Amino acid sequence: MTFNVLIVDDEADIRELVSGILNDNGYETDATGSYIEAIESINRKKPNLVVLDVWLGNGDKDGIRLLEKIKEDYNHMPVIMISGHGTIETAISAVKKGAYDFIEKPFDSRRLITSIEKAIETSKLQTENAELKIKAKISDDIPGQSSNVASIKQSIKKIAPLGGRCVIIGPWGSDKETIARDIHKLSPRAKNPFGVLNCRYLNVGELEIE
Predict the structure, then answer these.
(1) Where are the domains of the chain?
(2) In whole angstroms, what is the distance from residue 156 CA to residue 6 CA?
């Protein structure tokens, strides 16, 4: 499997240097020096890792703020911070905000590659563990081993990532809300609240207001 790394640095020569090192070691790379372009690239390509300079020369939209944005939107995406004039305080701040590592320029290429390898492996394990926890939770929520139960669980896994509307039909007491909750847990909206509205006791006039 080939991993994609996004390099974000306002110095073109550093972008070229890091890209060359990573390409020689089998990684695909994209590079940008802009906060906005970095966000667009991350949303579009979902890189396996980001190498990010602390200072991007964009005023308040610097590397640390970009790190915060990445961790807010893609918590398991590893970020390695680099800086030519970093301080211990900056390094500590970056790690506290979610950076996997902090490497000072000029950096040793072997150390960079080793850090990237470990960061990607750690991210893979975190993602796999999160998926296993969700699957285990679904198994706990919907009891039973019958073919019908297995079919429902499989449908949940297929429907949840799509992000569209879904109608769950069944008689009273068939645990439709549990199925809805499990779809929510596997959906892109899993971090957001799950709202329940009991329409059974509402008339048509009240439904829109509620």
Answers:
(1) 4-126, 142-207
(2) 33
Q: Give Cβ neighbours of residue 45 (< 8 Å, ≥ 6 apart).
A: 4, 6, 30
- What is the structure's pLDDT at 143? 65
Q: Which two tokens stand for residue 68?
A: 């915060």
Using one digit for the tens of pLDDT, what is the confidence trace for 77-105? 999 999 877 677 888 888 889 999 999 88
Ranges of the chain with pLDDT below 70: 58-61, 86, 130-144, 200-202, 206-210
Can you identify the CATH homologous superfamily of domain 4-126? Answer: Response regulator (3.40.50.2300)
